[in-house]
Design brief:
alpha/beta, Rossmann fold, 5-stranded parallel beta sheet, 5 strands
Length: 121
């Protein structure tokens, strides 16, 4: 399973990556912004993208949109620590969205979701 994590806070992306590698044996690429995410999507195929809705640089929706074009089979799990799209409308804005969770979700729960959605791909 090949996972792309797009998260501006390296301590959080590192935590998620460790859990995914340990629990699922995933190959994980961590990037911090839109530019790095686009470059990663050009160079590698990903099963799942874990994408923070609020990036310090760039737009998460632009990353998701590009992923739907470049890697149409990749599913996106959106994470956030805000109330943006708390009404579920993210699914109307991003065709490849498969889940929407809070950043504080326990890493083992995120890993289980990644495994589930990667298996259903």
């Amino acid at each position: 399973m090949n996972v792309l994590i797009v998260e501006s806070r390296s301590e959080l992306s590192d935590l998620w990556a460790r859990h995914l590698q340990r629990q699922d044996g995933a190959i994980v690429t961590c990037v911090a912004d839109q530019e790095e995410a686009i470059a990663a999507l050009y160079s590698s195929d990903f099963d799942i993208i874990v994408l923070d809705l609020v990036l310090r640089q760039g737009s998460a929706l632009a990353v998701a949109d590009f992923a739907s074009y470049r890697r149409p089979d990749a599913r996106v799990i959106f994470v956030t620590n805000t109330t943006f799209f708390s009404d579920g409308s993210i699914f109307a804005h991003s065709a490849n969205a498969c889940a929407y969770i809070q950043s504080e979700t326990p890493p083992e729960d995120l890993a289980a979701m990644v495994e589930h959605y990667a298996a259903s791909r």
